[in-house]
Design brief:
mainly alpha, about 50% helix
Length: about 70
Amino acid sequence: ISHDRLSSDKEKQFFTIIKQAFSQKRKQLAGTIPPLVSKEKLIEFLTQQKLPVTARPEELSFEEWVKLVD
């Protein structure tokens, strides 16, 4: 990831969250990434991005993943 998008600390967090989100097949984000991202923050983010709260990891674009971590 370009360092103008995320700092090195955020980049590490980005990959940790991505790995956790995709670690379980057919699971919704709300069931896989808390406690790395609070459920409240996740729901707020999904709502702002006009995504369903039942979204699965593969439904987010790269840019949306970056915004979630940032």
